[in-house]
Amino acid sequence: MSNSKLQVKTGDTVVVISGVDKGKSGKIKQSFPKDGKIIVDGVAMVKKHQKPRGQMMPGGIVEKEAAIYASKVMLVCPSCKKATRAAHKFVQAENGKSVKQRVCRKCGASIDN
Fold this sequence. Notes:
Blueprint: E1 13-16, E2 25-32, E3 37-40, E4 45-50, E5 60-65, E6 68-69, E7 73-76, E8 83-84, E9 86-92, E10 98-104
Antiparallel strand pairs: 1-2, 1-7, 2-3, 3-6, 4-5, 7-8, 9-10
């Protein structure tokens, strides 16, 4: 993917809008802007056959989250709990400078805290 800007950040709550896991929601654990992918907690679970690596890492079949495309998820507003696209708004900070902030398109509440 050539565009390396994602609309969601690590720690955001998102809901999956397409694919096998449609309707599932969770927090973003990790994001990969260069690939346009994210890892969402509890979504896109895959089984990995893991080789034992000493006493601390036993072998076996381990379930873990796989990366999904960021375009397949939609941001959830923390105040109205609805899936929304984020709008951007300039807000005055304490030091007098204006800061760009993400806001909910449905209720107008700030998504960035």
